[in-house]
Amino acid sequence: MADATAVSFTRNPAGLRKALEVLASDTTVVRQKSNAVAHIWIESPLDGQAVSKLFSTHPPIQERIATLKAMESLGPAGE
């Protein structure tokens, strides 16, 4: 929902997709993770934990990238 809203404001699904691809390629390990603030991250800090899928505040980043690619194919505004 947030990604679709961002595309409606920016009219640039490719820009958002590229930003998410940069985040996806980041190998930084977050050592201190808190469920209390996970909802404000751009990507889930809890990924990789078995229980994280049950309480995830974000879809998997690769799924978000795939959705944005599909929006790009709809036209310049992603509509």
Automatic annotation (TrEMBL):
Pfam families named in the record: Peptidase_M48
Alphabetic keyword roster: Cell membrane, Hydrolase, Membrane, Metal-binding, Metalloprotease, Protease, Transmembrane, Transmembrane helix, Zinc
GO BP annotations, alphabetical order: proteolysis
Its membrane topology: Multi-pass membrane protein
Subcellular location(s) of the protein: Cell membrane
Span of domain Peptidase M48: 2-71
Primary site of residence: membrane
Cofactor(s) recorded in Swiss-Prot or TrEMBL: Zn(2+)
GO cellular component: plasma membrane
InterPro entries in UniProt: HtpX_protease, Peptidase_M48
Single GO molecular function: metalloendopeptidase activity
Protein name: Unannotated protein
